[in-house]
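Shift notes (night). Ran N-acetyltransferase domain-containing protein while the centrifuge was going.
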Amino acid sequence: HNDNHTKNLSSSLSKSMKCITHHWVKIELLAVKRQHWKKQIGTLLLGGALYQASHKTNSKHSRIHNKCILHVAGGMQNIPAMRLYNKFGFMLSPDGLFQKPNK
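Came back to this:
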């Protein structure tokens, strides 16, 4: 009986994890070396990542694009990153994160 319970729990957890991973897109780091700044590389990278995230689908859910949150490494001192995020419609929230309003 205990083995069946463990198998059922494991199966349920596995299904839940698949569902969770299909609802989140995490980009750990997006950076451009200083010598390549002002060449629109950051715009291409962030635009491509947001496009991929907004068109990600799975069998149970349609497009996943409910909420985007960005953290600026270097905080308010990282003016180039803040400008890039603003270009894509993100706004600075009171907690210091950039958030894109739901459409």
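Strands lie at 68-70, 91-92, 98-100. Residues 16-21 have pLDDT under 50 and may be disordered.
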